[in-house]
Q: What sequence folds into this?
């Protein structure tokens, strides 16, 4: 079984080092696909990420297992299709996508790999459960995301997270057991990335701004985020990945969480 993974990143450095480090020994090959989408450049996004991002990328790229690809495709799905096409070139069985703010533990990656090894033929992809943290490392809401895709000659992203398989029939499933990753998507100081994403999504769906931003369902004020009430927020009483122990946000208690436990 071969797993080829990819991460798309643009000016998102806050958890990038830990995301790559926690993940890079799991797949056979990891591609870091860096660059803004052409559709976001109308909002003054530069084509390449800043120096903070490249300092981290250069730390991990070895051109043996971890590779850098620079790209500026029209939209997010097109950027992700680069990763899927690379997986095809390597005759991969599975393509595992991750974001720059997602951190895995060795235990969950081992579970995922064992699950993929015995996956039945009719499975086209897997959703993974996650802890999504918001405004605190002790507050989270439920996440369930498509992250793993069966590689076939004609598979392709037709939306930002969704893949079509014209050449294979099957179903999407979910990997059971403990939550697979820690998603630090709303515990951040880089508010520019949030607003760039909102503008991009509104460009795809011009009704989005009125429905979600003007209505106050999604909001950012002074680095504090609001999400829809339908996303129930829970108190987190578990442990964070050991790799996060030296992250400056944890070390300096940036979000006022007090003592944090680690696996």
A:
């Amino acid at each position: 079984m071969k797993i080829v993974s990819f991460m798309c990143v643009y000016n998102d450095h806050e958890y990038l080092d830990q995301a790559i480090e926690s993940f890079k020994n799991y797949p056979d090959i990891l591609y870091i696909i860096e660059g803004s989408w052409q559709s976001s450049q109308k909002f003054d996004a530069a084509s390449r990420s800043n120096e903070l991002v490249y300092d981290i990328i250069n730390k991990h790229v070895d051109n043996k297992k971890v590779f850098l690809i620079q790209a500026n495709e029209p939209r997010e799905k097109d950027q992700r299709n680069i990763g899927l096409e690379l997986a095809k070139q390597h005759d991969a069985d599975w393509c595992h996508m991750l974001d720059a703010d997602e951190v895995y533990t060795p235990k969950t990656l081992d579970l995922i790999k064992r699950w993929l090894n015995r996956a039945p033929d009719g499975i086209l992809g897997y959703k993974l459960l996650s802890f999504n943290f918001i405004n605190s490392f002790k507050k989270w809401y439920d996440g369930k995301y498509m992250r793993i895709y069966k590689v076939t000659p004609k598979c392709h992203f037709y939306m930002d997270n969704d893949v079509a398989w014209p050449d294979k029939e099957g179903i999407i499933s979910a990997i059971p057991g403990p939550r697979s990753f820690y998603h630090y998507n709303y515990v951040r100081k880089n508010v520019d990335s949030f607003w760039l994403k909102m503008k991009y999504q509104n460009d795809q769906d011009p009704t989005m701004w009125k429905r979600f931003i003007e209505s106050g369902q999604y909001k950012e004020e002074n680095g504090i985020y609001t999400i829809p009430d339908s996303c129930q927020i829970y108190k987190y009483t578990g442990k964070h990945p050991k790799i996060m122990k030296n992250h400056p946000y944890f070390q300096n208690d940036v979000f006022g969480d007090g003592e944090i436990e680690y696996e």
In short: The domain at 1-263 is CATH 3.90.550 (Spore Coat Polysaccharide Biosynthesis Protein SpsA; Chain A). DSSP finds eight helices and 14 strands in the chain.
